[in-house]
Amino acid sequence: MDPRALAPLLLLLCTQALMGQWIRSYTTGSGDNRVERLANGDALFHPDRGPSMVRATPNGNIVWDRNYGVAIQAVAEQASGALVALCVVPHSTLPGLGHPAIMFLDAQGQATAPLKVIDVDVQGYHWFDLALAPNGNIIVSTHNGSGAGSVHAFDANGGHLWSRNGNGRTPSRTVCGSDGSIYGVYGPLLMKWSATGDLLWRKSISLSGSSLVLWDIIITGGIPVALALHGVTGQLTRPALVMFSTDGAVSNAVTWELAQFEHSASYLGFSGTPNGAIAIAASFTSNTPVVQRGALITTYVDPVIANTRCEEVDLGYTTLHDVAASDGDGCYVMGYSTTNGTQAAAMLMRTNSSWWLGDCARQLQTPLNILLAPVMANSTGQLPLPLTANISTRPVVPTVGTHTVYPVCGAGDRSAINLRVMLGGPYDTNTGTMRGDLRNNGMVPLTEPYTALGYTSVGAAGGITTPYQLGFGDAQAVLDWIFVELLEPNGNVVSTRTALVRRNGTVTMPHGSATVVFHVPAGNYHVRVRHRNHLAAVTATPIALGASAVLDLTTSPTYGIEAQRTVNGVAMLWPGDVNGDGIVKYTGLNNDRDPVLVAIGGTVATNTVSGWYTGEDVNMDGVIKYTGTNNDRDIILQTIGGVVATHTRQAQSP
Known about the structure:
By secondary structure, this protein is mostly beta strands. 4% of the residues lie in helices and 44% in strands. The protein contains four helices and 48 strands. The strands form twelve sheets. Strands 3-4-5-6-7-8-9 form a seven-stranded antiparallel β-sheet, with no helix packed on it. Strands 26-27-28-1-2-30 form a six-stranded mixed β-sheet, with no helix packed on it. The chain has a six-stranded antiparallel β-sheet with strand order 22-23-24-25-31-29. The chain starts with 6 loop residues before the first strand and ends with a strand.
């Protein structure tokens, strides 16, 4: 019997922000299904270890539907648009228990070369995984469930490059970094190989008093992130994220309690985008009754957000297996639904970008809902309607049941602002933007600098950005990190955030959202902006913050007298607070001029120092200079008035 005839597959495009809503159904296999998102936005889906693959457009139209007669484990798209599939050749075809093989296909799913068989027998329960390196090399890992296996590398045409025995520790999931290095996970282990197959390190990840099983791994925003199952004695198993640096050190670990499910996590799908967004398709097993419920979770690699924010939607009586995400237009989610505890219709769901709500930055005027098909007779929940037609279209029925998104943050504990600010040191009067030398020279750190500088965080500490965010050029290029505070009318600081400021003055969250979110209730607050070598400025009066507010500090009144420098009608923070004490001084005790001289050596005034990310680089051009064109000392003198060297300028705040 053709397994594709077991159950229909539903493609559901949803949420309020779209032009229309619809359901498409296809005849395909059910069970543990996988989905890949292709470069042009198409979806490629297939049963895990099943013989068939289907390619569909974002509108749900089938491009092709093919059966290959081999067990397909994983699929990836090459830069040319051609496809590479990892499959298992049955023992009826080749002697042995089954052999992994690479299958080469064109974009239409047609084979372009003979199967490339890897000389490894499959023994019992097994994992295979496939990863593509940036140079097109194909990486295959094999694993038999007992630790035995190997890692293999082939060129883009299937030519064998090298094989490495896992020495009892071979990854069940692998991914390639931008430099071609290979990361893999198995159980509590994280492993890394070079592009040429050298084992660089192998580390065991553990948490005191609990278990942590690394389930899958991706690289998002340039950061290796593992999806894990976190177990504590006497508690339910929960999904967790573990974020690593490239040397394997744990930089952050996050787990969530999804109270509305109160189930144990079982199946998990995992996907990321270049800008650091993460999507998890999770299934939870309840005890009474014993059924599967599905949830889609989104967050970001920014630890501030990941530690405090995620969004999830209860998809009812569904089991979710996989997710494939993109930056701009949402994600595909794969799973199946059940009828009275029995597996029924396989399901593919497509969402739009409104799902990227990891920081609750988007305020929804009405709840975001997933619309499912009409309820089946005698069913236990909202289920897709079984259809038998190979390709058919059904409109969404407006009266069907819905499942609402439950934001962890809730509507009452967020204040958001769209903010713009200019820094006087790097401001370029010719362009009306700030110079981007620090980013251009690779000097902007991925981790915010203010914690190390001793700034006091309230509510959400820390912040991390990604190479993706630092890759933007022109006016959207990142200039530096800033520190934003909310003050009550009496001057007490109630919340802080580290954020990025771009050359055009736009302030964004570390993951790129232009809405800066604070974890406090809506209300009236002063907004204060601080920078590591500029004087802070604060709004003249408290402003109303809630779902969103707009504040342009280049034109809005600020507290005090001449609290900002004004150039051609543009207000900007005063530069020159080299030592960060809130006062710009040219002479005397704790002045800001002497540190510039010390930084260049303290003796020869014409010396310069390049490549230092420090406060002495007042104009932020990447070079510390005491004399000559574009020096940093003169800016300090100009800030205090430019004539009387003993004058000072001080930050002003209520």
